[in-house]
Specification:
Nuclear Transport Factor 2, Chain: A; globular; six-stranded mixed beta sheet
């Protein structure tokens, strides 16, 4: 997770891609509803780049896990729950969201195989504020 956080903070697309396993299951929660999609390695860089571009537009320079829980139910599987605070350079918060990651060990490295998150409503609200 340190590598993942660092890659986002640096805006390093290749380092981010190295954190994932494909196909990747993505669950996006929006209030009482949720959607499930499956990302493949060919499409995921575009998704990540759009997110990095949005973070740059919002002035995000760091993602700080204000809460982090890690469970390892099996030797080759880890579950990570993170409550992220996205911050600007001056330390002000842009927004908060929660994400749950399922990591699996592949060739000795843990990689993200699934993500469940509630970020989209907060991201969309932050973008609307900056677009005014």
């Amino acid at each position: 997770m340190k590598k993942y956080r660092s890659a986002f903070s640096r805006g390093d697309l290749q380092a981010l891609m190295d954190c994932f396993s494909f196909p990747l299951q993505v669950i996006s929660a929006d209030g009482a509803e949720a959607s499930v999609s499956v990302a493949v390695g060919e499409n995921w860089p575009d998704v990540l780049q759009r997110l990095l571009d949005a973070y740059q537009r919002l002035g995000v320079v760091d993602a700080v896990p204000s809460e982090l829980t890690i469970d390892q139910p099996m030797t080759s599987v880890a579950l990570v729950r993170a409550h992220w605070a996205l911050n600007r350079e001056d330390g002000n918060s842009v927004y908060h969201f929660t994400a749950v990651y399922t990591l699996i060990r592949i060739e000795g490295r843990l990689r993200i195989a699934a993500i469940a998150h509630d970020e989209l409503p907060a991201l969309q609200a932050a973008i609307r504020v900056t677009s005014r």
